[in-house]
């Protein structure tokens, strides 16, 4: 099993605020605070921001809860949480025990045939959540530092590098030049 710690946000946060909650060394956030929590990538946020801009809306007026994530969430019941937690005192945070991890891994693999990255959100607190997945590639994708590509001109569209269809050119109709840099670097 692979585990990745992501920032967690409430569904009412604006798109730019949610983008700011992406933890260093990752490229997604967990939206929600319970059973319906889901992973929303920076690419999902950028797409929603670009759509808002093109519709003449301020991305600050769009809530992250309105974003439809592109990543599939596991559709199996989470394994039961035991009262003893190998990561701290009982009740400090839910955790899967080793036999439950084996059960979960087999459920994930049976559900998706190992082809699609499925995940489970393991809650750890109001500011973060652990994503549990059987896919090393998916875990590696989430655990990469965020790179933001911006186009020159108004409106300024944003993309992740793998979203840019033609290298160095904005996907939107104005086709302006695009430059990419790591998040946090001006």
Automatic annotation (TrEMBL):
Domain of life: Bacteria
Listed name of the protein: Uncharacterized protein
């Amino acid at each position: 099993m692979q585990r990745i710690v992501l920032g967690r946000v409430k569904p009412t946060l604006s798109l730019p605020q949610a983008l700011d909650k992406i933890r260093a060394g990752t490229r997604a956030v967990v939206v929600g605070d319970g059973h319906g929590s889901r992973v929303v990538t920076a690419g999902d946020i950028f797409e929603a921001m670009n759509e808002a801009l093109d519709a003449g809306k301020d991305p600050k007026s769009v809530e992250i809860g309105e974003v439809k994530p592109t990543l599939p969430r596991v559709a199996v019941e989470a394994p039961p949480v035991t009262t003893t937690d190998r990561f701290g005192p009982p009740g400090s945070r839910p955790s899967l025990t080793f036999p439950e991890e084996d059960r979960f891994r087999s459920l994930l693999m049976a559900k998706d045939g190992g082809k699609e990255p499925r995940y489970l959100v393991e809650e750890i607190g109001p500011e973060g959540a652990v994503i549990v997945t059987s896919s090393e590639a998916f875990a590696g994708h989430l655990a990469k530092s965020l790179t933001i590509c911006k186009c020159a001109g108004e409106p300024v569209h944003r993309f992740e590098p793998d979203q840019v269809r033609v290298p160095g050119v904005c996907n939107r109709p104005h086709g302006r030049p695009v430059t990419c840099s790591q998040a946090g670097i001006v």
